[in-house]
Amino acid sequence: MTALRARAPWASLACLIAGCSSVDPSTTPPKLPPAPSITVGTGLAGEQILSRGLDDTPRSLDPQLSTDVPGQRLLDDLFEGLTTVDIAGKPAPGVASSWDSSADGKTWVFHLRRDARWSNGAPLTAGDFVYSWRRVVDPKTGAEYAQGMAAIDNALAIALGQKPTDALGVEALDEHTLKVRLSGPTPYLLDLLSQQYAYPVYQPVIARYGDDWVRPEHIVSNGPFVLRENVLSSRITLEKNANYWDAAHVRVQRVIYYIASDRSVQVSRFMAGDVDWTDSFPSNQYPWLKSVLGDQVVNSPYFGTYMLGMNFTRPPFKDNLPLRQALVLAIDREPLARYMRLGIYQPAYTFVPPLEGYQQPRPDWAGLSDAARHALARKLYAQAGYSERHPLRLDLESSRQDPDARHYYEAVAEGWRSVLGADVHVYEREFKVLLQELQLHKLLLFHDAWIGDYPDPYTFMQVYYTGDGNNHGGYSNPQFDRLVDAAGQEPDNVKRYRLFEQAERVLDDDAAFIPLYFYATRHLVKPYVRGWQSNIMDRNLSRYMYLLEHQRR
Amino acid sequence: MSDAHGFWRQALRRLRTQRMAMASGVLLALIMLACLLLPLLSPYDYFTPQFELLSRGPMLAGGHILGTDPLGRDLLVRVMWGCRISLAVGLAASLVSVLIGVAWGATAGYVGGSTDALMMRAVDILYSVPFVPFVIVLMVLFGRDLWLIFLAIGAVSWLDIARIVRGETLSLKQREFIEAARVSGVRGAAMIARHIVPNLIGIVIIYATLAIPTVILFEAFLSFLGLGVQSPLASLGSLVADGTSEMQSHPHLLIVPAVFLALIIYCFNYLGDGLRDALDPRDR
Amino acid sequence: MLRYTVRRLLGAIPTLLVIVTLAFLLLHAAPGGPFDAAKRMLPEIQKSIEAKYHLDEPLWRQYLRYLGDLARGDLGPSFQYRGTSVNEIIAQGLPVDATIGLTAITLALVVGGAVGVNAALRRGSRWDYGSMAFAVAGISTPVFVVAPLMILIFAVTLHWLPAGDWVGGSPSHLVLPAIALALPYVAYIARLMRGSTIEVLNSPFIRTARAKGLPLRLIVWRHALRPTLTPLVSFLGPAIAGLLTGSIVVESVFGLPGIGRHFITAALNRDYTLVIGITVLYGALIILFNLLADLCYAWIDPRVRLR
Fold it and tell me: What's the pTM?
């Protein structure tokens, strides 16, 4: 649901220092002082204080207003929805201990825990969810992510101002039973309900303090931790919540999030021993970090795709399939991933990143030899009316705020030059300017990216739906739309996935976008931090983590 | 004018005795020559990547004597291009600021009276405007055009020169040769252009030389914030910024551009000091 | 003196007005709005957000509204951090900048002053050349090169000091940022003090004192120091205000929660109120410190008359 969300509007501070370079993995690592070695014991550390790095200042700690990844990390510790995620990022019982659904998958009944409480000790009831969900879809709240609740009956109509908020398909049958009506079968509902916008909020504090309710002195939450201190751009401290229903199993007493927008600052702090677990690290430092820190560097697939968009409403791409295909085919994804992305990211030939049970429809051209693929690209390029005398001249518009991207795009442009003879230049724009031009469909060839909100292909597919607000290239194919619509009404997940796979083939046939690579999560983790696993949604709750005894030598 | 000739000859003699200033001048000339010639002579350009040679340290094989950058491009060529940009920004922006400053200051000082008061009041107000935020906002909002950088920095840094030039003009006005010119009918703009400004050249050269390093540093600061020139071009500031992110793994990417940046600024500062001592003996 | 101060303060009002107007127009002329996001919002929600922040009103009304709020000392709500006011952000950040800035300037005065006076007293010696070469190097090396190198050496490699963060201004967290920020000022002050000390030592009254046979150290302490301070004071006025903006780099490298760091994010995110608020604050501080400098000037050198 979120393009560019991860490092988006923010990123320029990240580029203060964070460069945009990469390193040949084959070069010998430079000689530098190794990080101090750490001895890890087997017992729990006496002091359970976890220091985590955070990529940015959360723009809001109000679950219904939050839209960024740092906000999600904090809110995952502060609040809990009907469902939550387990250590592997899979949906697990949260405030609801069990649920039933009707045969058509459109009506669900959730049974809330009797011992669920707010951090001030007040009981947490089904009515709190009714209030919170009505709040998020109410246009007056101004929740940018109101569309996230679209699966619930009437949510979109309410958010568009066409229906009153009490029309929302959610009802408290009694204090501990919540009935939810959906607009269609939603196999990923349990994932959806673990998102921050579906978290409950405490009506009395909001009524009393208005916008100020999220301050440490006012906030009431229901998660494993409570907010103790919030210093903008610096540090956010959480304390264990004694009123949390599962407090007995929460081992960490205090979590301190250190905000360092600059990823190399996070690395410095990790090396200096100030931080136990970083949010990320600059990908260009990967070989060096690996050589110095070894297993403390952890990366794994992330549910996001990096790509280039093309404008379907203007020449040269409008009605010019051979040109679009030529650009798609001429890119050597494997060496780019190896050299420019250091093998952390996997090359992409399709749209939806690897997902359990989903068969990526790998196109035929992906299997061609380099020479054959280049020859085909050149043929298509010529067919589109371009030649050495009359080359394609174009700017590749990217965001200046994404420092990782610049060198990569320069390499892509160089590939097009050497294979096709096309003359493409990287032009960096300021993020807000890029956004505006994108929404006006002014740009021809542009940087794009998509990170899924929940592990389901649907969060990707809607991007290329006709008229979608995130369909920046103005792509439209009724056949694709029909397949996505059909999947939306299909309760059987296996059949849904097959429909999505067909839809992806349509995208490839149309050369709807230029796939580049799939994202990866990147963390530095001290060996004494346990109780976490890499997962494709990159959600790692402090609730499960603990520290082993350790000694730094 | 024979008096002026003697002044310049004397000044040159005094400058020659300043060993550091002379050395700085020579070094600057060498750097300028190198950054003009080396990119022409080198077999490498500043934009074509070489994937087999990413981020290599200095090596003789292949002639990458200062190593390569993260895209395998020759660092020497890129740094020389960076010097070109930084020097061009420094010279052009200083020129802008000198032109505005001299015109403003000489006019205010020569005309005097309420015009002077008004013009200097404007300078006082501008002194209170926090320029760094304004330039940052400008760069953020209206892109990274090289001309905009010249103009923005130049427009910010003319205030000091205007003040100094005004003071000098006030004292020049009392001198006999100006009186003589006035008696012979020279007036207004002609007087300023022909008689006042030529006599300000000494002091203007000093402050221009001292303004250049400030301007180069400011451009580097903007580039460091990611608000400088458009890639694949790079100024010394953006090369330093890129290098900083990899200083732990590839220190040469930081050290090489940082050394050139510091060297250029160092030389301009020494040269400016030397010129001040040579041209403005009162200060000694 | 009092009348002078009051008149200068009143004279600052139009200047501030110019600053506010310039910043306001510049930001609103920029492409992209504060609530344009990568993901497009539903129109009703966009409207409700714009109404909440009065962005749906005509520009002149927004401007008047802003001026009215400003007159009451209210800098408005921040757009990028929803639920936080600009006053609050500044109240949280300013003490950080003030602490580092004051530490840095004190350091610069003590070290720079000592180096400069010493160089003047031993004029022409190796010490003089060495310290002046060092001073030029200090001016020539950008903070954004020095600061990361200091982290690399003292935090990452030697583990002597923390790599960043603030922790309520604990001394160990203050050391590296303050030194990084102070370095160029140490250099400037050393050069300035050397120059003015030489000038004063050559002046007739000092020559008289020396002719009387007073020891040099006594002369410096008793007679020479006060007049050498004049150029220093006129340098310090703008310099203290400049420290605030100069700390943008130091803040971001060390991850300090100061104001400068918010400024660039604010401009990038079109956080209109935060950008204008910080700009106005900087303007007010520059005016204030220039006034203080002029007052000090008059106090040190009685010949200067305040007009």
Answer: 0.82
